[in-house]
């Protein structure tokens, strides 16, 4: 009886996840230390969603409901003390290395991604979420407020402060017009994400 | 190109890079389902909930404080603590005078027992110059000292009227009890409502409640000012003699309430005086509250100091705490009056 119920619940969840799966798993990676870490966060969120699925009354709101679950898991993971400092170097080095149109485009994208990932790591989890959801995923401030369960002004504040921190990160590293999109010697070798991240905002 | 557009380009790069080779939904669900043990889902869920709770406690100070508070209340409600508590009143009735026979002794003992609602009455006899003297000792279960004192005195007067020489001594009967810490805390706080009570009634009630709590020697004075207002004075002095490691018996705290709320600040004035004699050295400690301001005054080796020196030491420490008060020390007895 239980297993039949479980199977039905999984089927229901899969049906609801299908339209948002690619965006959700990509968002998980963007919020995380690495692609593997992102996939792990996504699996954890899926499992949590499965556990709470019976509490979902309005399926039309599934997307924001699921993203709220994902953000909750994200913050839990960030606050959880981790013994394994994950290197950003190679964080997005999955699979084969196809060569871009000019032969260097993919490599440059990868390095840019690592650079901004490092900058995002310096933000609080809430600020990082706001930036990723708004500036990469294209969610509106209202949608983010619903997912983060805060007011519109709180989301705007997180966005503004997060962007300011990113800007200062780039200024500090001299990454202005004309500079090469690499962190030069600073990124050479292993560069760990901060193990302890601030959980509060300023 | 500025640093903002550089950030945008990098974010776009992150979007692209992180979209490469995404796992399909079936794979993700399969991996997620592998996290659930095949059997025994409820212990797994319980473990998960406990871990989530522990995690919440660890990462959220507010939750941690709430849980700790709840745990403290739980522990205080369940775990007993051992402490001295006034459980009744010891009554010693001394009877002497005319010839007292065995029948008379039995009658007096039975009457005393019935009057006080106490347990067995023990009679000690001794030979005095003028004849025999008998001391009837019993313990009343009533905690109200004045009530027992009043009843015993009436009983003694009755005996005196019959030609006996009778006197009574009533002292609190303390026992070491083991009650939950919550009960201990309540025992240490005496709440008295001042609503609609005359000065004399309030004074009697404070004295009575303190006696019940094992402080029969409190000096209580409640006086009404002609121009309005009420002056409530409570003076309890204790001298603790012992080693550093032995804590003195705590004094109960009197909380006066008006309309169900404690009287705080305002025109309140309270002084708690303690003298601790530890390893031969006496330290005078005063807790002074004047109009909401509080000060803790400590005068080490106060027994070796002159009254004037103690006065200066107390006064200067009170001033440092912003309290202006008249301090008088006479033969070691301290009087503190707020300056109005």
Report what the structure shows.
The complex is a heterodimer of chains A (202) and B (340). Helices cover 60% and strands 0% of the residues of chain A. Chain A is an all-alpha fold and 202 residues long. Chain A has a single domain, classed as Butyryl-CoA Dehydrogenase, subunit A, domain 3, CATH 1.20.140.160. In chain A, 37% of the residues are buried. Residues 177-202 of chain A have low confidence and may be disordered. With 340 residues, chain B is α+β, with helices and mostly antiparallel strands. Chain B folds into 3 domains: 42-78, no CATH class; 83-177, ACT domain (Alpha-Beta Plaits), CATH 3.30.70; 180-338, no CATH class. Chain B is built from 9 helices and 15 strands. Chain B is elongated, with a radius of gyration of 33 Å. The N and C termini of chain B lie far apart (74 Å). The model of chain B has no long low-confidence stretch (mean pLDDT 77). The chains are: A mainly alpha (202), B alpha+beta (340).
Low-pLDDT regions of chain A: 177-202
Write the CATH fold name of chain A: Butyryl-CoA Dehydrogenase, subunit A, domain 3
Assembly type: heterodimer
The name of the CATH architecture of chain A is Up-down Bundle
The largest contact between protein chains, plus residue counts on each side, is:
A-B, 51 and 38 residues
In what range is the share of β-strand residues of chain B? 35-45%
Write down the overall mean pLDDT of chain A: 77
Number of strands of chain A: 0
Average residue-wise pLDDT of chain B: 77
Q: List SSEs of chain B in N-to-C order.
A: HHHHEHEEHEHEHEEEEEEEEHEE
**Rg of chain A (CA only):** 18 Å
The N- to C-terminal Cα distance of chain B equals: 74 Å
How many domains of chain B, as an integer?
3
Unreliably modeled segments of chain B: none
Helical/strand content category of chain A? mainly alpha
Shape of chain A: globular
What's the CATH C level of chain A? Answer: Mainly Alpha
Helix content of chain A: 55-70%
